[in-house]
Amino acid sequence: MKTVLALTVGGSCAPIVTVVRAYEPTLTCFIATKGPKGSRVTVDGGGKPCRQRVGEREEENPSIVAQTGLRPEQYRVEEVEDPDDLPALYEVCVKALRELRDQYPDARHIADYTGGSKSMSVALALAALECGWELSLVRGQRPDLIRVANGTEMAGLINAAEVRARQRMEEARRLFNSYAYASAQAVLEGILREAPVSHELEAKIRRWVALCRGLDAWDRFEHQRAYTILQTVQSQIVPQWRFLKRIVQESGYEMVGDLIRNAERRASRGRYDDAVARLYRAVELLAQLRLQNRYGVDTSNLQVEALREDLQSQYRQRLELQAASGRDGTLRLGLWDAYVLLVELGDPLGKVFQEHEKRLRDALLRRNRSILAHGLSPIGEDEYQRIHEIVPGMIGKGLRALGVSEETPQFPLWEETP
Questions:
Q1: Are 27 and 130 in contact (CB under 8 A)?
Q2: DSSP-based three-state secondary structure for 76
Q3: How far apart are CA 367 and CA 387, in angstroms?
Q4: Does position 264 have pLDDT exceeding 60, yes or no?
Q5: How far apart are CA 145 and CA 173, in angstroms?
């Protein structure tokens, strides 16, 4: 297999010669500083530009190319101006590594950051991590903290997979905390397909993939699927897990709070029309559940006989008027009609509705202008905030009036450092 080697060049030639001889690359890309005092001359300059101290004396040796026997077609040089300008160095390194990868797609790509200034080494290492290159470093026996003893140098690969994996996990964490679970999952799964990682890191990635899949299903109201997946990681999301169990097992008023939290997640991503549609549905669902659970009334097909006797005549009249206009014989109650019926029944939720009636009407008028309702105008953040100030407050008070706990946790954040 062909090997492409990129490396930074500084004042010492010996480690660079060690790297080139170790990997026997098909092509070597030297990243060196230009100018009379730069490292460019040590790459392929004439005479003996490579100098190194051996004991008390200084040796002079031919260029790196001369020492390694590289032919002109086997190397190229990328010259840089300032060895301490990290942004400029990084730009040069990324450009060079991408070009080499495109030119030699089937080769092995190795970046050695032994030589050069600290900024040059950092730039090449960062570029290699971004471009998917293997990392290499020359190490040897140290008689002190300053230098490696001559003759002990050896080039070896660095475990870049773990570093790259943790970089990608940080990206996944940002997506997770933005409730973009499908995108976070794709990033995490990609880590395991790119290169082997430690068992500990792999186990952590798999846990977070399960969380992404489960929360994504929950976010789409696929509660049973979410329950199946999240039970494997329930210890990481205890409050949310308890609430999900109530949704799946009890089917009470939990869905109302679930819709509100879903709306808040949509709003956090700037999807205000979606958010308001969910708030509207939460208000509607609360009335529907109360009528069904307490009075046996189905708002999608109202049976007049199920109503209290003193209310039957007026609803029968509505049904007759509806039939006379040529519509079917099914009497359906929309959001407003459902709450009016609760008022007529003297229900505690109906009383809460009356307290909030004017403000709720204003909120619903704004919702009706939404392109997802009856209008053509998108809802902005300010309109969403005004509606959100009204709806959850009314729903919370309504639930308390019914003696229902309103503890509805939001989805968890990924707070630990990857």
A1: no
A2: strand
A3: 8
A4: yes
A5: 38
Q: What are phi and psi of 73, to 5 degrees?
A: -75, -5
Full-model pTM: 0.77
Which candidate, 243, 275, 231, 7, places its Cα nearest to that of 133? Answer: 7
Give the Cβ contact number of residue 126 at 10 Å: 17
Are 50 and 40 in contact by the 8 Å Cβ rule? The answer is no
What is the distance between the alpha carbons of residues 183 and 187, in angstroms, rounded to a whole number?
6
| Domain range summary for the chain, segments of one domain joined by + | 3-158, 165-246, 254-299+334-401
Structure tokens at 187: 């990033």
pLDDT in tens, 22-47: 999 999 999 999 987 899 999 999 89
The fold of 3-158 is: Rossmann fold (3.40.50)
pLDDT for 144 beyond 80: no
Long-range contacts of 80-84 (CB under 8 A, 24+ apart): 80/31, 80/32, 80/33, 80/34, 80/120, 81/33, 81/34, 82/33, 83/10, 83/33, 83/38, 83/116, 83/117, 83/119, 83/120, 84/117, 84/119
Which residue shows structure tokens 């790459």?
A: 43
Decide which of 183 and 12 is more confident. 183
CA–CA separation, 120 and 91 (whole Å): 11
Beta bridge pairs of residue 33: 80
CA distances from 8 to 47, 260, 380, 417 (A): 21, 55, 51, 31
Residue 341 near residue 291 (C-beta atoms within 8 A): yes
Tell me how far apart the alpha carbons of residues 229 and 233 are, in angstroms, rounded to a whole number.
8
Residue 168 near residue 191, CB atoms below 8 Å: yes
**What one-character-per-residue DSSP string does 266-283 give?**
HHHTT-HHHHHHHHHHHH
DSSP 370: B
In whole angstroms, give the CA distance from residue 282 to residue 311.
26
